[in-house]
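User: My collaborator sent over this chain with a note saying "see what the structure looks like." That's all I know about it. Can you take a look?
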Amino acid sequence: MAISNLSTGLRPGVCTSSTRPTSPYVGQVILETDTGNLLEYYGSTTGWAMPWNLPWGQVSRYVESGSTSPSITTTTSTMLTSASFTPLANRLYRVTSTWAAYSAGGGNVVDFTHYWNGGTINWYYQYFPAAGTQMSGTLVSVGTLSVATGSVLLQARAEAGSGTFWNNGSTRNHITVEDIGPAGSRPAS
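Assistant: Without extra context I'll predict from the sequence alone. Here is the result:
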């Protein structure tokens, strides 16, 4: 599929997601009419992807769909929500999650942590000053992620005391992963 040279300028090859070129070359650009995606071919390792120097937007999102109320203890981390996807090397990702928690006792401290395949990305702690305190928050992490299919997790663990995490119709815990641009050179072909 060649690039068209019209009186209106150059235009990428036009196809659908099921009729992509069978023998693409590195740097070839296509527009998929069924998905609206503008894609560039980076070679057999990476394949087709959006143009490297642009942010690619949301790549994964999960919103809790039901009511849950697991306990948060000092002995183990409790997973609140997760989102699965496969990151690419040299890309910068922003992970945003929201949560809501209730503390049965006063003076509790709870750590909220983003994990990627077992490793900590970022963490935040929340102090619950009095018994019956209900709080919500947002944790944002930005960075590169190791290349492997996996899940970004939002977990909670009490540093002191214990609490109950709840998720109801008005406070749904969620996690969103966005590609916000390149963190290095594009992959070699």
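A starting point for your reply to your collaborator: The chain has two domains: 4-49, 57-182.
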